[in-house]
Amino acid sequence: MNNIALVVGASGITGGNLAESLLAKGWETYGLARTPNIAIEGLKPVAADLLDVNSLKSALSQVKPTHVYITTWMRNDTEAENIRVNSLMIRNLLNVLSEKKTVEHVALVTGLKHYLGPFEAYAKEGFLPETPLREEHPRLEMENFYYAQEDEVYAAAKRDEFTWSIHRPHTVIGKAVGNAMNLGTTLAVYATICKEPGRKFQWPGSAAQWNGLSDVTDANVLAEHLIWASTTEAARNEAFNVVNGDVFRWSRLWKRIAAYFDVEVLGFEGKIKPLEEELANDAEIWQQIAQKQGLKEENLSRLASAWHTDLDLGRPIEVMTDISKSRKLGFTVYQDTEESFFKLFDKLRVAKLIP
């Protein structure tokens, strides 16, 4: 194979799992990040700042990728700033790669904020879409940095004549440290903290999320989908939803997670009880747990992203994602969601990130 992959954001949940999958399939794989992941055997690290063109030119001087996978973004205080920064990162990257004339395909990972709105208006009344969410749904009439990212890819593809794919996962479940959106690890840390002083594992979200149907995206499913779309003729120049292929109710899964960690569970009790508030004063408790148990990460904020977990679990509607477009074109990978969570928890224990 002559496929050469550049994974942008290789230190994150999506990028790290993708890099491992590419390497397992025999791809020459480069991992770009400000602080590259050097723990993945065979991955060629590329240290660069996407906001610095000179940094990119220097770091990529000897890299000639055929396939580019963009799995990273940067959170800012406003959506206007999200748009400016995240579109600039993609524009800088694709401008630098344009000079090489080697890129055949660019895959961009975004998410369900495409349908539910940006952080500032996420899943608010008046902007609630019909579910299941389908790729055919039009863009919302509001600013959204996902749209800006897509437009950068479309423009570069037209200029440089490469193909593209857009991937819209639901919440991604997988192992990573220092990730801005990490629901699985956040819940594992919360349950661990609850167990220490005997606190109850309190559901933090809405009635709609507690009682309704939902789905998520295993990081390995997303990795396989990215590779499939970038190497399948029928999938080129298309946008896709990506989920595990099953649905679940949090009212069941929450109890199953509590049982895994052997903590007492509390379900929805009439109002939202944000996890960010619940964990606000627990940094010292986590540090004590980490020291006592010999864990590798004492910094609670490096593992838990309560703000994003609250966004997901506090939505006023049930959120399901239609994946039939991918199925019709031949993508058949499936993952049981409960197993996704439990496999993640097992990995976190082996890695000494939770007791």
Automatic annotation (TrEMBL):
The organism's place on the tree of life at top rank: Bacteria
InterPro entries named in the record: NAD(P)-bd_dom_sf, PRISE-like_Rossmann-fold
Annotated ranges, domain PRISE-like Rossmann-fold: 64-355
The protein's name: SDR family oxidoreductase
